[in-house]
Amino acid sequence: MAQDTPKKSKAGANKSSTSSSSHLNVELTIDKVFMKYRRSESGPVWWGVFLAVCALTAATRFYNVGEPKHVVWDETHFGKFGSWYINRTFFFDVHPPLGKMLIGAFGYMTGYDGTFPFVKPGDSYDGVHYLGMRVCCTTLGACLVPFAFIIVWQMTQSLPAATLASSLILFDVGLLTLTQYILLDPILLFFIMGSVLGAVMFHAQKHRPFHPVWWGWLVFTGFMLSGSVSTKFVGLFVVLYVGLHTIASLWELYGDLSNPLSLVGKHFLARAVGLILLPVILYCVYFYIHLTILCKSGNGDGFYSSAFQSQLEGNSLYNASMPFELAYGAEVTLKNARTGGGYLHSHIHLYPEGVGARQQQITTYSHKDFNNKWLVKKWNEEPGDWEDDDPTELVKNGDLIRLEHVPTGRNLHSHREPSPVTRRHHQITGYGENGEGDVNDVWRVEVVGGEEEEVVKTVIHKLRFVHYLVGCALMSHNKQLPKWGYEQMEVTCNPNVHDPNNLWNIEDNVFPNLPNSSFEIYAPNFLEKFLESHTVMFQGNSGLKPKEGEITSQPWQWPINFKGQWFSAIDGFKVYLLGNPIIWWGNLVVLAAFVFVYVYQAYRRQRGVSDDRQTKERRERTMSACGWLVLAWALHYLPFYAMGRILYFHHYFPALLFSSMLTGVIIDYLLESLPSLVPQYLASSVYPALTGLFYSTLIYSFYLFAPLAYGMHNLDPTFENSTVHQIRWLDSWEF
Amino acid sequence: MDAAAGVRNRKNKVASQKTDKKQQHGEKETEEHSDTLIKKSIEQLKHLDEKINRDSGDGESAPDTPPPETAPDDASTASTDSSTPKKDTSSPKPQKKSKMGASTAMAKAPPPPLELSLRLDGMSITLFLLSFVTRVWKLDNPKGIVFDELHYGKYAGLYMQNTFFFDSQPPLGKQLIALAAYLAGFDGSFKFDRIGTPYDPLVPVSAMRVVPAFFGSLLMPTIYNIMVELGLSHYAGALAAFLAIFDNAMLAQSRYILMEGILMFFGLFGLLCILKLRRFYHQPYSLPWFCCLIVGAISLGACVCVRYFGIFTLLLGVGIMARDFWEMVGDRKVTERQLFGHFLTRAAIFTIIPITIYISTFYVHLSLLYKAGPNDNIMTSAFQASLEGGLASIISNQPVTVVHGSQVTLRHTHGRTCWLHSHDALYPVKYQDGRGSSHQQQVTCYSYKDVNNWWIVKKPDIEELVVTEPQEPIKNGDIIQLVHGLTSRALNAHDVAAAVSPHNQEVAAYIDYNVSMPAQSDWRVELLNPEHTDGYWHAVESQVRLIHLNSSQALKFSGRQLPDWGFRQHEIVTDKIIDQEDTIWNVEEHRYTRSDDKKEREKEILRSEMIPMERKNLTFWSKLYELQYKMLFNNQENVAGHMYASEPLDWLTLKRGVAYWISANSNAQVHFIGNIVIWLSGTLALVSYAGLFIVYLLRRQRACYDLSEGAWNKFCTIGEVFGIGFAVHYFPYFLVDRTLFLHHYMPAYLFKLCLLAAMVEHGHDLLAGYLKAPRLAKIYLGGVGVWLASILSKTKTLEQVRCWVLGPQPSQVIEQEAVLRHETRLISHHLLV
Q1: Phi and psi of B500, rounded to 5°?
Q2: What is the pLDDT of residues B302-361, one digit of tens each?
Q3: From A349, which residue of chain B is nearest by alpha-carbon distance?
Q4: Do B579 and A731 touch (CB under 8 A)?
């Protein structure tokens, strides 16, 4: 395993090349190389260190990448999504599509056929080509280390700082675990780091504006930004970061009075094109690809409007063969017409005591289900059988009808009781037996904008169901019922008849005695589909609230590495996501140290204390690099405190990257400052000694905690020689 | 910020070059004694130059604004123009050491002994009187409960009766109202049951309402003085106060028993004190300096004690002070030692005083409320026991030490209030998801007192379920069994997945504990605080964990509800993570079993009766700790979808008001809604400030200085106080999960109002000063006059709705209705525009 620091390995290589020379000579050469490394002067040394870091990264990331040979944690979701892309089956997810699409593409390229069901974590991959997807994800994850190296190098121009920062990322067990599997996180982290890399490199080109290389990095940044937003919406934080970075540099250009305003305008426009326009276009392109690839009906259909569904192969609305008109006796499903509305649904459970009348629950439900079926009846007669030769009677605008829930035989019913969540609306229940109810079951159908006596039509007509006695209208919105209602959405009778949430449309319409017709003409265009997908996504995202009694991860727990996350709990191969505590806690200490140093420097400046030029320059470069890194860390961490949605430990990892880079920069700064503070005879040895100590601690801690990532074969607590007790430093760690 | 500072800095450099000569000239005169106004102003200039000159030494330091020596004195009355500042003790004395300066100043003009100098600020008094008159006029109308008077009136009544209540906001405001009610002789017997109920003649409505009215009126001179303190003209100050007086929302909020008037006064008065501190920059540690600091701390502390949201005002105040301190750091005449002293003094005053106030309000709160009341259930058993007639009634003469044969109820100590419960119903054989259960008797956590909450403590080796002689007390670490009182089944846990939390073990009551089964019903008693009770298990006081012996898991309240078959009671499980709050229990009710006969025992349990008794003592600190914990972390039931709830975004445009009171027999109503003209102008001012700021900043970055340095600094200061003040009082509401109402916006609105007045003045300054168009400036003033008139006209009509609605004649009622309708239409019209 990783035995050598980059520094040492290079020194070692040097040693072998000069093995013939005398001992003194060797030492001199090592010293020389080391000084070159420390002063960041020589190109070959830079490349040597960089390649060594890359080699170590590859070694740690790809070691045992195929293990475990079963589904790990969220691979069950993302692997499934990948399969669906390969099978072109439509699905619904709260994240934008790029990450999942990439997983699908990786699988497709490496020969995965999309047949594995990914049912639950722990399912064995027997004979499945899963390795390709893992390797691709790991490759993206491995890029983080060299990216960090280059970013820190560009920010500080210090080779030791770059090495320190990248090794902190390299030896973090948590990042290793998170970037080794088929997950969105390696992809997301790759794009986030890529964006920062792009921004930094672009900034470094400021001496040659509008040069092709300048343009290259601008476009690269835009591309990476689009990638991070299109993988998960948290990618927006990095957009904000790059935006602030850009504004700062523009402000500088603008303040330089030797630049004419037209030049500043040009600069501004170029950035607007590269960092705003290009990502937006790419984002739309990804969605276009997403919507084009997924053309077959799948389990996500129900979240979308009937018109949207009519585009999906295999959906009952695709090339629909349904009666165009609604007749008495038809079995229908009713969909709330607002974007993201569900199906009118009932099930054989009653409202609990204290919540209105104890009658059967009526909800809306986004999935297609047998319980969504309703039978349309006249207000005063039961319908005949379909085989009967009775003349077919059509439902017209303004007719009085009843709706019977097909599986339970209860009628849609309302009365003057408060609704469970929205107390000022009336409750909707299922009432009666086998279709026999009372007068409160009668509803008047109104076609929005329809003529009198106009026949009610499937899909295209927006309908309003007005309760005959109370005069309120059937409504649904996205407020969830509590646990007793299975967190389905509430249905109420709204006294305000003209509320836009009161509209419904008929989606399925089964009535054999009427001719079927096609619904092809209602196909929405790309823009409509794009907007609808977003509404549905945001609604899904805001619905991800912690359930009652469920313990969610709190943001304050993350930086202190309070609690990890089981990735694989199968005996014999346990993987537990947990950061390397040395690195994580060290990051916190350094962050506090930074605040202290920053305040101290600001105080000195305010008091007007001046230093010699070299010290000042070095300090300023370090402080500005640190300032930007702290900003990035804060942008990726603090907003989580304001989020109401359910949170997980792994949300901290983007912030961790910046925190680790900050640690690298600060440690380098302190190491360089220390020799001037200690007695003369120690000064020359303090730097190498501390560097050595730093790397050896890092590597030893990695060695200790690596089993968490590589699979704890020997860590079963019941074993005699288990090392689990040694490394379980906090009681909250669950392994 | 950095960029802005840089900009200012650059300007300073330019200025310093110009004035370098003057500075050298001025230094010679340092020793000269100067009394005349002219000499003073020269010195003042010189002093400024010194500051500026120092800045040119290195490019780093960036003093944002010079200390406000030039701020006009508020002693000048309304009639005097702001441009003639009178000099008094606050004028700067340029000395090498500021401390010395203060002392020499004293020596120069020793105050005659026993001299009393009285200065009246006519403007402030006028504003106060005007405001007070509008606020107290017809104060007892309407004679019914208006909106949140429901709560605050009720709390005042409970204070009168010394009955404990639980509210998630701190008590100072309620105490002030209760004090007024007490002085007016209220006995607290009136039931505040719902909005609109007419008051009993015995309720001193006016006395209670006069408290918010008084504070709401004091607010106006405070606003005026803050504006003046920030270097704005007296006219602008008066304008801000005028807007606040004639805003309907302000009026409604300070006429009834509501907290906002008090909250806003304390907050703004604290800010005023902190701003005044700038005036005494050169006389640190003098009496007025200390007064400002301490009064500011008291006032801001009180603000937090009225409502937790006041913490943002406190933070704003501390922020302003920190900013001023930072400027002092840049002043190299102040030594590091002095800086450190200043820092310590301020930090000490601003931590000790608010905390003391906060704790003392709670001390008053807890010592006044010593009787049990309606929402005790939230508190722990120990807390309830400390209330007279509360839990004390139950645990009165109950034995303390839990022994073999004790009958106990076990309460879930933290979080949801419920008791360990079992009843004659079994777990279903199969759950809906296909898993099987033990099919044994259910054990749940039940939120109500019930005979089925009784359990009998039994030692495994003793058979008789009766207290033995000698008693067998249970110690920490003892093994016990718990037998359900009515069904005589023992609590057990086993390796079966629990009903709702399958990752935990199921807990059940086993049918017949006498049958020799492997002992799964043994539990180890683990006391959390054995040192208080010498290791014995005491009722109420001991917090206990029950550890299942076979599986080493702890009995836990899982927080989830069982489905219908479990009567929606809460699930009980065992969990291998022992150290968590949900595994903590305590004995609440406790008595010894006297009879071994099962029938007799059951009868006894069914007969359980409560007798009131004396209270048990709990120290103030532990009570405070618990109350705090509950107030901050207890998520109160959210009144979701209240009819008049509104969103923060709606507040900017005054989308909807709140009907505070609607008459039962006429169309009269009190409607809480702002003056639409002021409201929209305020939002406009906010936008224009932000826009102008960006424009100025952009111009300055290109070295175009439109405003003079003084005007620019004033413009920045306005933003620092009012703009940031608005932001910190407004944006946090976007993160709040509770139901929000328009009145939550009031503090932020106040800052917006001040900004509006400041912007009006800035507009005039721009026209008169920068554009040099006196005629335009006159027209502008005329426009302002028209605008004020429109404000007044809006106020008047709405005032009619609010105050004159109560006329008894039917004709008048109809007229009022017409006015109301008209007004509603007007408002909606405005919104459409």
Answers
A1: -105, -25
A2: 999 999 999 999 999 999 999 999 988 888 888 888 899 999 999 999 999 999 999 999
A3: B564
A4: yes
Place of tokens 């016990």: B480
Percent above pLDDT 70 for chain A: 90
* Least confident piece of the model among A60-74, A610-624, A665-679, B107-121: B107-121
Cβ–Cβ under 8 Å, residues A412 and A362: yes
Interface of B with A in 690-709 (CB under 8 A): 698, 701-703
In angstroms, the CA B483 to CA B374 distance is 32
Residue B511, min C-alpha distance to chain A (Å): 29
Residue of A nearest to B561 (CA): A483
Q: Quick one: pLDDT band at residue A655, thresholds 50, 70, 90?
A: very high
The DSSP 8-state label assigned to residue B71 in this structure reads: P
> Distance between CA atoms of A601 and B652, rounded to whole angstroms?
41
The complex's ipTM works out to 0.73
CA-based torsion, B727, B728, B733, B734: positive or negative: positive
The minimal CB distance from B60 to the residues A255, A423, A605 is found for: A605
Across chain B, what does the average pLDDT equal? 76
Taking contacts as CB-CB distances below 8 angstroms, the residues of chain A near B54 are 608
Give exposure, A313-348, as e/b (b: 16+ Cβ within 10 Å): eebbbbebebbbbbbbbbebbbbbbbbbbbbbbbbe
In sequence order, what are the residues at sequence separation of 6 or more whose Cβ sits closer than 8 angstroms to the Cβ of residue B136?
B210, B213
Q: What type of residue sits at position B548?
A: H
- The Cα–Cα gap between B384 and B589 comes to 12
Q: Could you tell me if A610 lies within 8 Å of chain B, comparing CB atoms?
A: yes
Whether residues B61 and A608 touch (CB distance < 8 A) is answered with yes
CATH number listed for the domain at residues B398-609: 2.80.10.50
Q: Which tokens hold the place of B243? A: 């807007």
Q: What percent of chain B has pLDDT over 70?
A: 75
Q: How confident is the model at residue A587 (pLDDT cuts 50, 70, 90)?
A: very high
Chain B residues in contact with A605 (beta carbon < 8 A): 60-61
Q: Is A226 exposed, middle or buried (0-12, 13-18, 19+ CB in 10 A)?
A: buried
End-to-end CA, chain B: 36
Whether B433 has its CB under 8 Å from any CB of chain A: the answer is: no
**Span A390-448, pLDDT tens digits:** 677 888 888 888 888 888 888 888 888 888 887 778 888 888 888 788 888 888 888 88
Please state, in angstroms and as integers, the Cα–Cα distance from residue B85 to each residue in A488, B295, B711, B764, following that order: 69, 26, 17, 21
Among A692-701, B506-515, B813-822, which range has the highest average pLDDT? A692-701
B110 cis-preceded (ω within 30 degrees of 0): no
Distance CA A365, CA A490 (A): 9
Q: Distance between CA atoms of B352 and B300, rounded to whole angstroms?
A: 12
Of B558, B560, B643, the CB nearest to A424: B643
| Residues written for chain A | 735
**What residue type is B241 in one-letter code?**
A
**Of the candidates A219, A179, A178, the residue with the CA atom closest to the CA atom of residue A201:** A219
Phi, psi of B585 (to 5 degrees): -130, 160
pLDDT, position A226: 94
Give me the residue spans of the domains in chain B: 155-363+652-832, 398-609
Q: Is the pLDDT of residue A694 over 50?
A: yes
A107 CA: distance to closest CA in chain B (Å): 34
Note the pLDDT of residue B458.
85
Output b/e per residue, B256-269; b: 16+ Cβ within 10 A: bbbbbbbbbbbbbb
Residues 463-522 of A with CB under 8 A from B: 479, 483-484
